[in-house]
Amino acid sequence: MEPESATPSHPAVTTCYRHAKVESHVGCTRCERFICPDCMREAAVGHQCPECVREGARSIRRARTVVGGRVSAVPLVTYVLIGLNVLAYLAESVRPEVVDRFEMLGRGLVGPDGGHYLWVAGHSPEYHLEGVADGEWYRLLTGAFLHLPPTGGTFGILHIVMNMVCLWNLGRVVEAQLGRVRYLALYLLAALGGSVLVLLIAPDDATVGASGAIFGVGAAYYVLARRLGADMSQVNRFMAGLLLWLVISAGVTSWQGHLGGLLAGGAVTLAYAYAPRDHRRPWIQAGAGVALLALLVVCALAKAAQLT
Fold first, then answer.
1. pLDDT averaged over the chain?
2. CA torsion through residues 169, 170, 173, 178, sign
3. Given CB 3.0 to 4.6 Å as the disulfide criterion, which of 70, 71, 171, 265 pairs with 78?
4. Tens digits of residue pLDDT in 118-174
């Protein structure tokens, strides 16, 4: 028995191409295949199927910032960095020895009683070396996520509060302009730059704090403002305050870490902001970051060899 053919009194039944058992009389405006209500997606004219919507989304060119970063409304990296700093502060509040284990220290001594001491020439054999000079390279970055512990009194709490407030205000602006990947690279290179300058100038000083990385973000804020042609009066006042704190910090905290972060952040942002706006831009930006990283690594290796 042959199937009944479509006639004016028995029209052909059309079904959704994704759901064969669902009758449908609406076609996708792009591929013209029939789609059911569950598969309909609103379009400028009529409806489209899910596959055509996905294909259209891939063909849309995403907005980019002036330095080539993807535009994002959520400063996710800034949130994550603040969260990591807060978690590290909670960890050192519960276990204060975390600071001794992970602070930035070029060269120090561990005594027979397990205590931590400043390095002195001709120390007793019972004391052994610790710090970057002893191969603890992780300190170059971990120290940038620690702060003065609560045992340091009011200033210990103010240390992390002030740093996180600065990171919140500056980071959101800079991340929006650089994009997440470039911003994260900037932050880590600035943190590393601060630690390396501490290692070069004051290797026997133990330091903690995100200030070096934040100074790098501040330098990026200034460079980007000039690149975008912003009103520099307010920006210049901000930078004057930043430089004033750099001078004051010489007697309060580690000015070496602040200066190192400022220089590293400014250098990498100059490459971000003024790279040519063509296919070479991402390669030049990445190359500048790698070159700065290589310079910092060479400096750290040379100083560590000298200290040992």
1. 85
2. negative
3. 171
4. 777 777 778 888 889 999 999 999 999 998 877 656 666 888 888 999 899 899 999
pTM of the model: 0.78
Could you give the 3-state DSSP secondary structure of residue 10?
Answer: strand
pLDDT tens for 182-222 read 999 999 999 999 999 999 999 999 999 899 999 999 999 99
On whether the CB atoms of residues 186 and 217 are closer than 8 A, the answer is yes
CATH code, domain with 177: 1.20.1540.10
**What is the residue-wise DSSP string for 99-121?**
HHHHSEESSEEE-TTS-EEE--T
Judge whether 63 lies within some domain.
no
Residue 229 lies in a domain: yes
The verdict on 137 and 284 lying in the same domain is yes
CA distance 67 to 282: 9
Range of the domain at 176: 76-307
Cross-strand pairs, 108: 118, 130
How is residue 30 annotated by DSSP?
Answer: T
